[in-house]
Amino acid sequence: MAARPFTDAPVSIDNKTATGILQYKGIPNTVQPVLLQLPAINNTVFALSFNAKLRSLNTAQFPASVPLKVDRHLFYTIGLGCFKIIISTPREYLPQISQTALQHLSITLVHQSLPTLAVGTKQGTRLSKLAFNSTVELVVQDTNLLTVESHPFDLHGYNFFVVGTGVGNFDPKKDPAKYNLVDPPERNTIGVPAGGWVAMRFRADNPGVWFMHCHLELHTCWGLKTAFIVENGKDSDHSVLPPPTDLPPC
Q1: If both were cysteines, with which of 55, 133, 224, 241 could 85 make a disulfide (CB 3.0 to 4.6 Å apart)?
Q2: Angle subtended at Cα 153 by Cα 149 and Cα 155, rounded to the nearest 5 degrees
Q3: Which domains are assigned to the chain?
Q4: pTM for this one?
Q5: DSSP 3-state assignment of 186?
Q6: What value does the CA radius of gyration of the chain take, rounded to a whole number of Å?
Q7: pLDDT per residue as tens digits for the range 98-109
């Protein structure tokens, strides 16, 4: 077995190859394995092709319950500009965060509406608010402001189905027809390809304030992070508990 990093950005990385040998019982030591021929470190076509082959089991024991009807369509663009990361989305999806939600939120959030230039980004607390048990489709589009780079995105509180991915700009008229709604992989973290897009679907059945961020820690510190506010359900079993009485103030 062999593994090494993949990179699609002009940055320096630790380009070492990790290898391991799994020896079955009864196989003599004279049988020597042959080292795998790994693709080039920047072979984007191979990496995307490999990821596209991933599937869920979609069996009776492990069903792939992909939402087929979508209640909420969201489109986020991400990009590296002026040494800041921005997240943008249509403003009508961004209600002001409530004081109740702030009681449950102990992280600093950064949001910026889509600018005409990659300058003047601002901090804020505008978040996407989702109705309880609604179905959501989120398309994350990587943009090329200063340089392109893939970003591993993590959504807390949920698994989601990766129903589509591609290179270039997402086409809302053509690309959804190519979605895999039968057995897409179920993840909580997904790599948004450099200059490409990823489409994911999930059901918002876990109330609370849920962090979504790039797993490159430096990018998270720069502001590549946001959150979803998922509203409470109709009963206490599907609602966020109130803060404990001994919760220290910020």
Answers
A1: 224
A2: 170
A3: 59-236 (2.60.40.420)
A4: 0.78
A5: strand
A6: 21
A7: 443 434 333 333
